[in-house]
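I'd like us to work through together how a protein chain folds, taking it slowly. We need material for that, and I hope you will provide a protein of your own picking. Go ahead whenever you are ready, and we will take it from there:
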Amino acid sequence: MKKIPSFTVNHDNLYPGVYVSRLDHIGEETITSFDLRFTKPNFEPALENAPIHAIEHLGATFLRNHETWAKRVIYFGPMGCRTGFYLLLAGELKPIEIVPLLKELCQFIIDYQDDIPGATRRDCGNFQDMNLYTAKYHAKKYLEEVLIDIKEDRMVYSD
């Protein structure tokens, strides 16, 4: 069986960044899948479930309500390996084009003070497994260490 593209990336050389994981063409439309890598795989500890879940709820809410980007958002959610998130957007895009959006997203999470959207028994199948405090930590780390002064090597997969 042929490996899927995300399993062909050399994770030993992968650092936190914003990468194009794949481009899919559906008829005339293109979907760009972004790899939002928060930690260095197999080196740093994976993200914990509770902050990942909080980031997922806050991120999806923020993105699907964004004045400019909402209509292009297809999906936002965690990677199974817990080293980051996938963001799927309509259109053929480059990482640098979404860095301002990701900065806004991280700042939104850092500044967030209310109840996490959808974090109720009625709205979520695992509503108690969220940690806003640690989600803020991870968002701040990603913003400061990756997004603020992102370099080309953190936007292109290396071999």
About this structure: The longest helix spans residues 95-111. The CA atoms of residues 16 and 39 lie 5 Å apart. The two ends are 22 Å apart (CA to CA). The chain has a mean pLDDT of 96.
